[in-house]
């Protein structure tokens, strides 16, 4: 009576294994094409970041900090952080990491933004997708490596695939929330002027929801960056691989250098992406104050 009864057994693991076998058998060619597309995109970004001279990229990052955040000190800070990464000897690895992050965010946005719009404009879709998103966000990130390895083997592609799955929920959720919280009066006014559903979406809802959507993009980017070390476990190169090697060899200093380099990249990416939503919010608040 004390032990849990073992009469009823739910064979979920067996069902999932059979599903994976079926997918590999019948859709192997499809996953080969997807893997090729992902690899081409990653390598294109990596080639661009490695082709740009280091001092040019440092200046561009500093300029972004100055112009987007409206702070010369922030621009200088960004340049300093990028220089420190280079002084650690991790410039090329940092560019590989940046290519993985940017590529995964691009794919996540291509998937997430349309799904967020669908959720916002269809209550049934929201009911179906919300539990799925809950599961995607609470599932341990290591679990995503298993299907990625089965579909694509070792290397950059499975790492990017797992990163996309892990990072896409925030942009879907916040796109949905942003559109749903648009002022009803603005939508009704657009309808009164004869705007179509498509015009309302592109000319009213998306522009007004942009600050919230940008926060979603910011969160997606940061979650993609957090998968760097985990992705290195299945062959993705970059700063994550240095952390993994340092753990295996118990080299504390090497691990700290690679880890702090990831932190510096995270700070720069976070401030730049968040500046878009913050900037628009400030402009919106200022406009409302002027009207009063």
In CATH terms, what is the fold-level topology? MetI-like fold
Structural class: mainly alpha
Low-confidence stretches: 286-292
Classified by CATH, the class is Mainly Alpha
What would the average pLDDT be, to the nearest integer? 84
CA gyration radius, whole angstroms:
22 Å
For the termini, the CA-CA separation is 70 Å
How many domains, in number, for the residues?
Answer: 1
State the CATH architecture: Orthogonal Bundle
Shape: globular
Q: Report the oligomer.
A: single chain
Helix content: over 70%
Number of helices: 14
Main beta sheet strand tally, sense and closure: none
Report on the structure:
Helix 3 packs antiparallel against helix 4 (72-87) and helix 9 (169-180) runs antiparallel to helix 11. The chain starts with 11 loop residues before the first helix and ends with a helix. The protein is globular. The chain has 292 residues and is mainly alpha-helical. The chain has a single domain (12-51, 88-286), classed as MetI-like (MetI-like fold, Orthogonal Bundle), CATH 1.10.3720.10. The protein has 14 helices and no strands.
């Amino acid at each position: 009576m004390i032990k849990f009864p073992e009469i009823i057994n739910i064979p979920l693991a067996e069902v999932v294994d059979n599903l994976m076998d079926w997918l590999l058998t019948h859709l192997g060619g499809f996953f080969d094409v997807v893997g090729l597309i992902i690899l081409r995109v990653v390598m294109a970004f990596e080639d661009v970041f490695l082709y740009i001279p280091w001092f040019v990229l440092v200046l561009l990052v500093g300029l972004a900090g100055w112009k987007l955040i409206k702070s010369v000190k922030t621009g200088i800070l960004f340049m300093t952080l990028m220089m420190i990464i280079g002084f650690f000897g991790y410039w090329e690895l940092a560019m590989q990491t940046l290519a993985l992050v940017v590529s995964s965010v691009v794919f996540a946005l291509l998937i997430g933004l349309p799904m967020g719009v669908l959720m916002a404009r269809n209550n049934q879709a929201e009911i179906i997708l919300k539990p799925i998103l809950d599961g995607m966000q609470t599932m341990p990130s290591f679990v995503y490596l298993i299907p990625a390895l089965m579909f694509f083997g070792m290397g950059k592609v499975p790492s990017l695939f797992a990163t996309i799955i892990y990072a896409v929920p925030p942009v879907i959720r916040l796109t949905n929330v942003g559109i749903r919280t648009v002022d009803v009066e603005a939508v009704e006014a657009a309808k009164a002027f004869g705007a179509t559903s498509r015009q309302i979406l592109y000319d009213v809802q998306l522009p007004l929801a942009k600050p919230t959507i940008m926060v979603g993009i910011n969160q997606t980017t940061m979650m993609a960056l957090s998968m760097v070390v985990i992705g290195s476990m299945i062959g993705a190169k970059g700063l994550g691989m240095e952390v993994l090697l340092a753990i295996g060899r118990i080299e504390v200093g090497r691990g700290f250098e690679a880890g702090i380099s990831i932190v510096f990249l995270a700070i720069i990416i976070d401030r730049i992406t968040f500046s878009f939503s913050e900037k628009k919010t400030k402009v919106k608040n200022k406009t409302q104050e002027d009207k009063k």
